[in-house]
Each structure stands twice: as C-alpha cells, then as structure tokens.
Amino acid sequence: MTEQLRINSQRLWDSIMEMAKIGATANGGSHRLTLSDEDKQGRDLFAEWCTAAGCTITVDRLGNMFARRRGKDNSRPPVAMGSHLDTQPYGGKFDGVFGVLAGLEVVRTLNEHQIETDAPLEIVNWTNEEGARFAPSMLASGVFAGHFDLEFALSRIATDGAEFAAELERIGYAGDVICGNHPFTAFIECHIEQGPILEQQGKSVGVVTHAQGFRWYDISLSGQAAHTGSTPMVGRRNALLGAAHIIHAVDEIAQEYAPDARATVGSQFQVTPGSRNIIPGKVDFTVDFRHPVAETIAAMDSALREVCQQVAYDIGLDLSLEQISYTPPTPFDKKCVAAVQQACDLTGVSHQQILSGAGHDACYIAHVSPTSMIFVPCKDGISHNEAESVKQEDLEAGCNVLLHAVLELAQA
Ligand code: HGY
Ligand code: MN
Ligand code: MN
Questions:
Q1: pLDDT digits 0-9 by tens, 70-81
Q2: Range of the domain at 395
Q3: 378-397 tens-digit pLDDT
Q4: Which of 278, 293, 327 is the last residue of a domain?
Q5: Could you tell me if 281 and 301 lie in one domain?
Q6: Residue to probe by mutation, ligand 1, list 30, 95, 137, most atoms within 8 Å of CB
Q7: Which of 83, 133, 138 to mutate to test the pocket of ligand 1 (most atoms within 8 A of CB)?
Q8: Which listed ligand is nearest to 388 at the C-alpha?
Q9: Number of domains observed in the structure of the chain
Q10: Atom 4 (ligand 1) nearest CA
Q11: Is the dihedral of CA 218, 221, 226, 232 positive or negative?
C-alpha cells in the first residue's frame, strides 16, 4: 500500500517559500546568518510547524533542534532526516532549507495517511552549517559527532565580533540537552547538489555515495604600511603583493591535482589599513581546499605551507597560517545508500550515483550513525548565490525518495 504514497509537492514548495520570506534579500536570496534574529525567526517557524505536525521539540546545548515523531517502538533510535536553516550572507532559498523541510513534508504526509513507522522519526535542524558568520562550518554537527569539543564551539567569535555562546543565549536556543550521544538508526540528508552534474545529465535525483574531504585555513600576512609616494620600491614589505602571489599559487595547486582538486582563496578578504596611498601593511584571507582523496589533500596542504613560507621570506613578511578545520573524505553507509537507491527505483525517478563536492552535516554524522544523502539539481549548478534556483518537480522527486527511504529504514 505504501508504495503508492507520495508527498504533497505544493505544500513542500509553499513551506520553502514561506521560510524564504525570513531574511529575504532584494535579489531573491536569503540572509539568515547563524544565531542572528533572522535565524531565530526561522527556528521559531520550524518549531511551530513541527509542533502543529504532532512532533515534540528538543534543543541541545548548541541549539541543534530535534523534532520527534513517535513510532510503534520508541525504544529504537530514531530515523532522522534534516539539514540546516542558516544561510550564507547572500545565499539561496534552498541550500539546507530543502533538507529540513523535506523531513517535515515526510512527517506531514505520514500524518495525513495515518501511517505509524516502527522506529520513531526525527527532523533535525543543525546549527551553523554554513560557517560564514562563525567558522568553521558544520560546527554543531561536528560537536555532535565528536569532531570538535563543546567549548571550542561555544567560544567561536563571529566575523562581526559576537561570541557564539552569547548569541545562542540571546536568541533563546541554548538548550539543556547534551550535544551528542544521541544515536540514529539512520540519518538521511536531502540537499541541492550545488554543482552542475545532475542538471547536465538530466537526472532528478543524486544517490550520494560519499563526500570529498576539505581543509579550511586562516592566513595573515603582515608587512609594513608606508607612504606610496615616498617609499622606494626596493625594500617595501607589501602584504598585498604577498597575498597576490599566494592567490596565484593556490590556483596552481588546484591545477597540479586536476581535475578533482578544488582550491580557493575565499571572498572573506581584508586589507589594512585600507587607504589608497598607504602600502598595504596587513592582509587577512582564507583558503579552502577540497579533494576526494585524503592523501592528496595532505599533499596540497604541504604545497600551500611551502609557498606561503617562501613568499613571506622573499618579501619580508610575517606569516600566520592556521588550519581551522579538516573534514576527511567520507564514504556513506551502504545500507542507507541502498535504501535511497531502492526508493529511486520504486518511485521511478531519473537518478544516478554522485559524489558530494560540498561539505554537509551528513559528513560528520556519518561518523556516528549510518548516514547518506539525496541530491536534487539546481539551475546551472549555482549555489551560495542569491540566484540559486531549483525546479519544484525535482524537489518533489527528492522528497518522495526521502519518504520511501525512511519508510524502508524505519520499519521493524
Ligand atoms: O562549505 C561547504 O561545503 C558547505 O556549504 N558548508
Ligand atoms: Mn548546505
Ligand atoms: Mn551552503
């Protein structure tokens, strides 16, 4: 009987559009930074919807939200679905939100058809997946999975100077439940691909088998601020010149390990003292390395350290290079991947297996519970951009796969 079950596509779409009104930007994107007032509003709306759907809400020490739907056997660990509601500063409507609200749509559909699963279900909203306001990314799922410790997370300082713990208290989401030690029978995260492959291949759903690893760095170069007119070229200690060499070297490291390497100096880039007629004295910037193979990420790391030291020596700069996070390449659980595959076959959606280029909360949760992901295509593969766009029918296909994968994993 349940094979014919399908979610309500319009209700899912309308919920995503309703959530997008919170922190909506003038260009059609989303601005709901972690622990901001907009994040609070999004959380409150999510809690309201889940309560209306008969779930009970638990909030842990880092603000992770767990909306629980009882099953027949509540002694079993829940089958969890979820992602994140926080966004990039100028992000899209679907990154993260799709995964959280797809979980809600599954619960709403099961309620409608009075279907009770054997294991309980949980819909999860992970705090600070993006890492844009408080680095590193996937912070709260990382603590939940034992990758970071609680104090490290609570002490993070935002790009705007705010402290994580204080902001969590301020928005009223500093829960009293410990973060972690909360096993799942399975965790399935729906997400947009944020790359071009599924759209190019004409597929509605990606069966994600693993995620590539990544390293994040904070780099500072300090030289000598001085007058641009009266200071000879010889002997200058121009920090921005050093950064320029490193930007180019980072791109060359990606070429060295092409085609799978990704290496980027990000758009969080600060030059001081910021005057046109002062030689730049200091530059602060970030580097983001990604690759499916751990040994290659290690080789990229060595190459970066070597070139930074050489540039600093050549120009007479002080170098600070700090690795702020490392997420290893993550294979997903075979049983969960098979359940997603089986749900694709059952619902008849076009699909293919795929690697995740982006990091996700599932990458950490996979270390503590059986985990996998379901991707849907986004237009031109564009994400982390206000122009992010997804077809309603692809969201519907992905959410139907989630529904049937969860039914499979939650049965006795
Ligand atoms: O950086 C990432 O891959 C994710 O969007 N946090
Ligand atoms: Mn995301
Ligand atoms: Mn993102």
A1: 999 999 999 999
A2: 9-212+329-411
A3: 999 999 999 999 999 999 99
A4: 327
A5: yes
A6: 137
A7: 138
A8: 3
A9: 2
A10: 359
A11: negative
